[in-house]
Design brief:
Shape: globular
Organism: Perilla frutescens var. hirtella
Protein name: EF-hand domain-containing protein
Keywords: Calcium
Order of helices and strands: HHHHHEEHEHH
Largest sheet: 3 strands, antiparallel
Strand content: under 5%
GO molecular function, one term: calcium ion binding
Radius of gyration: 20 Å
Distance between the termini: 18 Å
Strand order of the largest sheet: 2-1-3
Oligomer: single chain
Length: 219
């Protein structure tokens, strides 16, 4: 979790003043009673209200509560925001939130039905029987990103001929885009009017395949 906290912090600190203002507004929207902190009750209500039911549990709240004081401050909520907006998956086998490397089904990755992801432990133990007509291919997050690289004409193989994808390794998708088109913001609609439009414009920042062509940030 410390790595995830550091990533969220880096996105925030590297962002513009406008982005930082939006992040603060996000925190204020979660803090429904305005006491400067997010209680377990506020957390559970909002998680369920916005459809993040698998995250709506006291255990995950305690994981976010880094200092263990029973409440979430701004920086702890920032980590929650990053986890949701970056699409950190729930393992399809054990049901835990995967906060480090995960494995995704290649054929499901760009499907409208959503990706099928596994944590390292479930993938290694072969607990998943997920397949497509007998075909099964899972790639870890780093390898999946690397498959998006397309060799250019100047890339040649060791015989001096232009490099081409071998038939067995030909990617089965043409592009990778964010899942769904709607915002996954976790604040009530009535409290997000000031920054919803900006948030929707920014949330494509971590979309695999769009990173090199956008200056957006996840926050």
């Amino acid at each position: 979790m410390e790595v995830v906290r550091a990533i969220a912090d880096a996105h925030y600190r590297a962002g513009s003043d406008a982005v930082k203002s939006l992040a603060y507004e996000f925190f204020r929207a979660l803090d429904t009673d305005g006491d400067g902190r997010v209680s377990l009750h506020e957390f559970l209500v909002l998680m369920n209200q916005e459809g993040h039911t698998r995250l709506a549990n006291p255990y995950f709240y305690r994981v976010l509560d880094r200092d263990g004081n029973g409440f979430l401050d701004f920086w702890e909520v920032l980590t929650l925001y990053y986890i949701i907006k970056s699409g950190r998956p729930i393992c399809q086998c054990c049901g835990i939130l995967v906060i480090d490397t995960f494995f995704s089904c290649v054929e499901c990755f760009n499907s409208s039905e959503g990706s099928h992801s596994l944590c390292i432990h479930c993938y290694r133990a072969k607990r998943s029987h997920h397949n497509h007509n007998g075909r099964q291919q899972f790639l870890d997050t780093f390898t999946l990103l690397q498959t998006k690289k397309r060799p250019t004409p100047e890339h040649h193989n060791i015989q001096g001929r232009p490099w081409e994808w071998p038939p067995s390794a030909q990617p089965s998708w043409s592009s990778i885009t964010p899942q769904g088109q709607g915002s996954t913001a976790i604040v009530p609609t009535t409290r997000m009017s000031r920054w919803k439009a900006a948030l929707e414009a920014l949330e494509v920042g971590l979309a695999i395949g769009n990173i090199s062509s956008t200056l957006c940030t996840i926050l």
